Amino acid sequence: MAETGDGKKEDADYKRLQSFPLIRHTDMPEEMRVETMELCVTACEKFASNNESAAKMIKESMDKKFGSSWHVVIGEGFGFEVTHEVKNLLYMFFGGSLAVCVWKCS
């Protein structure tokens, strides 16, 4: 089946839409939320095929920037229930179905 010019445009629009981070839930202050979201996107792009390395990069950066005891989970198709410090939780999606959860507990 031959692909038309419109099909290529639709694919490009879909990829652009799916690579935009989607915040599902957060209670972080605006500045921290933006920094954390950018860090998550950078790590997931850098380690696209290795979620463990991406999580490690995010955790180490968050520990350094905002103090220790940060936790990170990256993957598809998981549920979670965590206890966290107030104003220290971010749950987002990136690339369509890749979920990232970042939280701090003392």
What would you say this structure looks like, in words?
Keywords: Cell projection, Cilium, Cytoplasm, Cytoskeleton, Dynein, Microtubule, Motor protein. Its main location: cytoplasm. It is found in: Cytoplasm, Cytoskeleton, Cilium axoneme. This protein has a four-stranded antiparallel β-sheet with strand order 1-3-4-2, with helices on one face. Helix 2 runs antiparallel to helix 3. It contains three helices and four strands. The protein is globular, with a radius of gyration of 16 Å. It has helices at residues 5-18, 30-46, 51-66, and strands spanning 22-26, 70-75, 89-94, 98-104. With 106 residues, the chain is α+β, with helices and mostly antiparallel strands. Strand 3 and strand 4 form a beta hairpin.
Oligomer: single chain
Number of helices: 3
Q: What's the Cα radius of gyration?
A: 16 Å
Shape: globular
Q: What class do helices, strands and sheet pairing give?
A: alpha+beta
Amount of beta strand: 15-25%
Count of DSSP strands: 4
Average pLDDT taken over every residue:
88
Spatial ordering of strands, largest sheet: 1-3-4-2
Q: Helix proportion of residues, in percent?
A: 40-55%
Residue windows where pLDDT falls under 50 for at least 5 positions: none
User: How would you sum up the major sheet?
Assistant: 4 strands, antiparallel
Terminal-residue CA separation? 57 Å
